[in-house]
Design goal:
heterotrimer; A alpha/beta (540); B mainly alpha (366); C mainly alpha (331); B: 366 residues; two-stranded antiparallel sheet; two-stranded antiparallel ribbon; 13 helices; C: mainly alpha; ABC transporter involved in vitamin B12 uptake, BtuC
């Protein structure tokens, strides 16, 4: 087989964005009919590299060979002609078009008129590949998994022989992931080559034939999956043998700081995102929140921080109900909140403003002077830059110009500087390299040691099991149970996340999420909830 | 083989920007010169007339300065006010309408408060203009905040509704209509009584109107407001990221409402100044300041010092053409619009050279 | 005393005459907006097409030449808009407003420069002939309706034909689907190999060209006389932008929508005659000021805008990506 040319071969590809070198001298090969996993941490340049294959970006240097012939890809059209199709992480679909119309946008040989037979053609073709999809359904009415199916269908329809999937499982449930992998295997059997971008090692081991590893924009190596282990891959990915053990000092617990009962919160679309949830955090412990993406984590965090309306329920902070109070009051009560959204810049930072201006964001209003106090802000900004090793040209540079990891350090630094007693942090290591991640873990542990109650919403179960004292699992906004990190394993957590295992009433003497030494006595709780129910009745 | 493609520039671009803008102005004047030549006019003579606005060799030079200021002051104020809302990414393009509302409300006070002491009348006029215009701005902002109504299109429609309302008042003879001259058969807007006319400080024969002085002070205040105050900071955060502003505990809707009120009120004040300075009102009194202000605010990238420069240059062009039309009757005010259009096109093109750079793609041979 | 039937016929006939330029402008702007560009330069684009088309038409003594040039010159202005906003990524609002200032200034510059040499419509018999009424056989003989609907010049029929063609193109053809996709989500279209920039250029230019025809029609309707103070277009470009919203971005709806707006406009001119002919029924028309009718299109559009934003679960025809420039490598 050595003589058969590669489906794709990349040589010496480079791409720079401003001062960031996203790809440096990358070499990569893809065999015909194989599934190649492209592995690397966030920010290692995987997506950038694949975007150059799909014609979204143009490489600054380097060459691309398809089936042994040198080609130039300067637009998505070129890429499609060469038989490359990409399913992007953020779907590229027109929301108010039907499924068939979304595919038809790229039609070239379908004549001038828009004929009704397109629905039939798409339906036939979908069932040929074993998909079930309604060609007339509007994208805006589709679930995430349906949208992804449509994206794959789109790529297949245009005769792609190479299919690139950018983190396809990030938004899927376990069952949906399994279905996707079946599809990928079928595609492989029919002679397609697949590149799957991911940073989930178990998935790499399960689905791929070979694994190519990138690190910080550089190509490291390609290995055959059956000849490697997760541990070896991790080493390739992070570059050195890592101490997988995250430090976990013994908690020095206090009474419950924050107690949440019967909490119900709606999402932006108006459906229930957090459903009758209850839990509590003590000072000096880290409580992890696990769940599949979109299980209500975001809404929960926002509700605690006062950014989202609480439909029903109590949030008792040091004996005071803070549900419904304005965000400023909650922040001043000592509840800090750092949420790293997917695009990293969406919430919490003003991207076009300087580090100084971002550091003062939450306390610009202090004092009676009509002027903003930038002097102390500058001192604080310089302190954060120094303490967390933020790489930036100056504290006056817009945060937009910094890389994602540095942006996050500024955000977290600001929240911790507010010396909170409850720290809510969601995805704080999203997109950070391993060193920065450990810096964050250390910082959280330092807060814990100071007696702060930390709510850690995370993605990586391994990390949560190492770092957190207890883990609360949510599924579709409902509590599935709270477990001690040392007593659980990934399988159990996984079952709970998918709703297959409910441990809420596992212990007869103590239902999950209710503290024995609650800040309020049982009667007080009953009175509180009764009062609220009356309030609700009155409003109805 | 090399291929060209675009890359966004990073880093400091101020010097490059200034050079590009100067080149853009030069190119536009070059094209203007060709047009002038085609009409048989010596462009050098014309431009020197235009740029000196008839100051040189004119015994009424002070009149030219006063005339220039009548164009410059409203444009400066409107541009700054628009910049306030644009900074928030609120596309208030209703400058024309807000200007007229302010002017008409000031006029109503002027006609009705005959006999009151001058300063009182003037202050009442300014207040009436600011409140009326500000309330309209508030209404637009309310629609945006409450129902997410497209503010660009709402303010655009509003401009014309106000314009026709003013025309109606100006063209309808009726007993209730105290805006018109009583002694004229034809409907004409009346002249303001003396106590409603903007006074000034006499410097020789040159009358430096108080409205000019106030607008200069306002420029400084707005500069400080945007750059150093908490409210200015809030505007910047809301403009940069609404989610972040909410997260920081800012009352975003309150900020939008407040800023739009201030923005519209300032434009209304410009209308009152303009009416008081010319002692009457008319549907065309805006002199397109509402439209040109958008261009000025944009040209200067919403920076107050930039607006000062851009408003000065555009006013020079506008008033210069007016002054030059005395010696060149075949060229009217529209030549200024033509030049203004070309300058903006050239500047937009040079903007591109400031924000992007064209690089050749290198291909390494294997 | 005017014969009531004759007056009504004339009134309805005039509605169509005054709606047509709006129809051109509206359909043109719909084509532009469907590509995701909000072009506030309709007024200027119409002015440039009108003045140059008219002058060339007189010189060449042909309405075909006039229309071709009006279309081409307006399309050229559209190309300028496209170059600035698509290629150079300039802000669409500012560019559009400048196009209006610039276009109207070009109109006056050319008019002033020609002065006495301004060509007269009557001196070009071929041109005038081409713009004369074409009576559609049989249909035009129907009383009232025949005069109102089937006795117009070529440009009136053309406007309706263009509107229907554009509707068909947008909704029933593959390139139309592609165009709508670009207006909704250019990144999605781009990833399927649709040439976003090229498509934007083409449709902005075609749309602008259609606006130019509307401008030419307005000039011819006024007998082609240049007035130093008033531009032919006289705010119709702005009404067209309002109309696009009123008809929810549908060229087919635009036919009906322009007649609604044309109705108010004509009412302004006929309110006196109508009131005196039908004093019992329409006497109140006399009390309504002309300026109110002029403002009515804007008032209605404002209300449409507000009501539309009050509605929940709306299916608006407004392209999602309108007003936003597309730069593929943005991140």
């Amino acid at each position: 087989m050595a003589d058969e040319p590669y489906a794709i071969e990349l040589r010496g590809i480079c791409k720079t964005f401003g001062s960031i070198k996203a790809n440096r001298n990358i070499n990569l090969t893809l065999k015909k009919g194989e599934i190649l996993a492209l592995l690397g941490e966030n920010g290692s340049g995987k997506t950038t590299l694949m975007n150059m294959l799909s014609g979204i970006y143009t490489p600054d240097a380097g060459s691309v060979f398809i089936n042994g012939a040198k080609v130039t890809i300067s637009s998505p059209e070129d890429s499609a002609k060469l038989g490359i199709g990409m399913v992007h992480q953020h779907f590229k679909l027109v929301e108010n078009f039907s499924c068939a119309d979304n595919i038809w946008i790229g039609a070239r040989d379908k004549g001038f008129l828009l004929k009704k037979d397109r629905y039939k053609i798409i339906e036939d073709m979908a069932s040929e590949f074993g998909f079930e999809i309604d060609p007339r359904k509007l994208v805006s009415m589709m679930s995430v998994s349906e949208k992804q199916t449509l994206e794959i269908l789109k790529v297949l329809y245009y005769g792609a022989s190479v299919i690139i999937l950018d983190e396809p499982t990030a938004v899927l449930t376990v069952q949906e992931t399994r279905k996707l992998f079946d599809v990928l295997r079928r595609m492989k059997e029919s002679g397609h080559s697949v590149i799957i971008i991911t940073h989930k090692l178990n998935e790499v081991m399960e689905i791929s034939d070979r694994v190519a590893v990138l690190r910080k924009g550089e190509y490291i190596d390609t290995v055959v999956t059956s000849e490697t282990t997760e541990k070896k891959l991790t080493e390739l990915m992070v570059g050195r043998k890592i101490e997988l053990n995250i430090n976990r000092p013994a908690p020095n617990k206090t009474k419950p700081l924050l107690e949440i009962r019967n909490l119900t919160v709606l999402n932006d679309e108006g459906s229930v995102a957090v459903d009758d949830l209850r839990f509590y955090i003590r000072g000096g412990e880290i409580l992890g929140v696990a769940g599949i993406a979109g299980s209500g984590q975001k809404e929960l965090c926002e509700a605690i921080a006062g950014l989202r309306h609480v439909e029903r329920g109590k949030i008792i902070h040091k004996g005071r109900n803070i549900a419904g109070l304005p965000p400023k009051t909650i922040f001043e009560a000592g509840i800090a909140f750092s949420f790293i959204p997917e695009d990293r810049l969406g919430m919490g930072l003003a991207p076009n403003m300087s580090i100084v201006d971002n550091v003062i964001l939450k306390k610009y209003k202090y004092g009676t002077s009509p002027f903003v106090d930038r002097k102390s802000g500058r001192v604080e900004a310089e302190d954060i830059v120094k303490r967390y090793e933020v790489v930036t040209t100056s504290v006056d540079a817009p945060v937009r110009q910094m890389s994602g990891g540095n942006v996050q350090k500024v955000l977290l630094g600001r929240e911790i500087n507010a010396s909170p007693n409850v720290l809510i942090t969601a995805y704080p290591v999203r997109g950070l390299d391993i060193n920065s991640s450990y810096l964050v873990y250390d910082t959280l542990n330092a807060q814990k040691a100071k007696g702060v109650g930390v709510l850690f919403v995370g993605e990586d179960l391994d990390v949560m099991m190492e770092l957190c004292d207890k883990i609360m699992v949510m599924c579709h906004g409902r509590l599935m149970g709270v477990v001690r990190a040392v007593n659980t394993n990934k399988e159990e957590l996984g079952l709970m996340m998918t709703g297959a295992l409910d441990l809420v009433n596992a212990k007869e003497d103590k239902p999950a999420g209710i503290a024995v030494d609650s800040a309020l006595t049982l009667e007080e709780w009953e009175r509180e909830i009764e009062a609220e129910d009356k309030e609700v009745d009155k409003n109805d | 083989m090399t291929k060209l493609h675009l890359v966004r520039r990073t880093g400091n671009t101020l010097l490059r920007r200034i050079i590009c803008y100067l080149a853009a102005i030069a190119i536009s004047m070059g094209i203007g010169a060709i047009l002038l030549l085609s009409l048989g006019i010596n462009p050098l003579d014309y431009y020197s007339d235009m740029l000196t606005v008839g100051l040189i060799g004119n015994k009424y030079a002070y009149k030219s300065v006063e005339g220039f200021l009548k164009v410059f002051v409203p444009l400066l104020m409107v541009s700054m006010a628009l910049a306030l809302s644009f900074k928030m990414r609120f596309w208030n393009i209703g400058g024309e309408g807000e200007f007229l509302i302010g002017a008409m409300c000031a006029a109503a006070i002027a006609y009705r408060c005959d006999g009151m002491p001058g300063p009182v009348v003037l202050i009442l006029m300014c207040l009436a203009a600011m409140i009326s215009s500000g309330l309209v701005g508030l209404a637009v902002a309310f629609l945006k905040c409450r129902f997410n109504t497209n503010e660009t299109l709402v303010t655009l429609m509003m401009n014309y509704i106000v314009l026709y309302a003013v025309k109606y008042i100006g063209e309808t003879k009726a007993p209730w209509n105290f805006f018109l001259r009583e002694d004229s058969e034809r409907p004409l807007f009346a002249k303001f009584p003396d106590n409603a006319i903007m006074p000034g400080i006499m410097i020789g024969r040159f009358n430096l109107l108080y409205s000019v002085v106030i607008s200069v002070i306002l420029t400084v205040i707005i500069y400080i407001y945007l750059k150093y105050t908490k409210q200015g900071y809030e505007i910047a955060v809301v403009g940069d990221s609404i989610n972040t502003a909410r997260y920081a505990g800012m009352k975003v809707n309150g900020i939008i409402l407040r800023t739009m009120f201030i923005s519209a009120a300032l434009i209304g004040l410009a209308g009152a100044f303009s009416a008081s300075a010319s002692a009457t009102v008319s549907p065309s009194m805006t002199n397109n300041a509402g439209w040109t202000g958008i261009v000025v605010a944009w040209l200067s990238k919403l920076s107050i010092p930039g607006i000062l420069v851009a408003a000065f240059l555009i006013s020079l062009l506008q008033y210069g053409c007016l002054a030059a039309s005395l010696s060149y009757p075949e060229i009217d005010q529209n030549f200024a619009d033509l030049m203004q259009g070309m300058i903006l096109f050239a500047v937009l093109m040079s903007d591109f050279l400031v924000t992007f750079k064209i690089v050749r793609r290198k291909e390494t041979e294997s | 005393m005017i014969d009531p039937i004759e007056l009504m016929t004339l009134f309805l006939f005039s509605i169509i005459v005054y709606s047509i330029p709006l129809l051109y402008g509206t359909v043109g702007e719909i084509m532009v907006e469907k590509s995701g560009s909000l072009n506030l330069g309709v007024e200027g684009t119409m002015a440039v097409g009108a003045v140059i088309g008219y002058i060339v038409g007189c010189r060449a003594d042909s309405i075909v030449a006039a229309m071709a040039v009006a279309f081409a010159m307006a399309a050229l202005v559209g190309a300028l808009f496209a170059f600035l906003t698509v290629t150079l990524q300039a802000n669409q609002n500012v560019t559009g407003l400048t196009i209006t200032t610039f276009g109207v200034a070009v109109y006056f510059f050319i008019g002033n420069a020609l002065g006495n040499k301004w060509p007269q419509f009557q001196d070009s018999p071929g041109f005038a002939e081409g713009f004369s009424v074409i009576r559609i056989p049989f249909l035009s003989d129907i009383p009232v309706i025949g005069k109102v609907l089937f006795s117009h010049n070529i440009m009136v029929y053309m406007a309706v034909a263009i509107a229907i063609l554009c509707w068909f193109y947008l909704n029933r053809t593959v390139p139309g689907l592609r165009l709508r996709a670009i207006g909704e989500n250019p990144a999605a279209a781009d990833s399927l190999g649709v040439k976003v920039a090229l498509n934007k250029y083409i449709h902005i230019m075609v749309g602008s060209g259609i606006m130019g025809l509307g401008g030419l029609y307005m000039g011819l309707n006024m007998g082609g006389t240049f007035e130093g103070s008033n531009c032919w277009i006289n705010g119709y470009g702005w009404i067209a932008i309002a109309l696009v919203i009123f008809v929810n971005w549908s060229p087919a709806m635009a036919v009906a929508g322009t007649f609604v707006f044309g109705f108010f406009n004509t009412l302004r001119m006929y309110n006196g005659a109508l009131a005196s002919t039908f004093p019992e029924v329409l006497g109140w028309l006399d009390d309504i000021p002309a300026q109110f009718f002029s403002a009515l299109p804007f008032i209605i559009t404002l209300l449409v805008l507000i009501i539309d934003s009050l509605r929940k679960n709306k299916r608006s025809g407004q392209p999602k990506a309108i007003g936003l420039n597309y730069y593929r490598e943005d991140r």
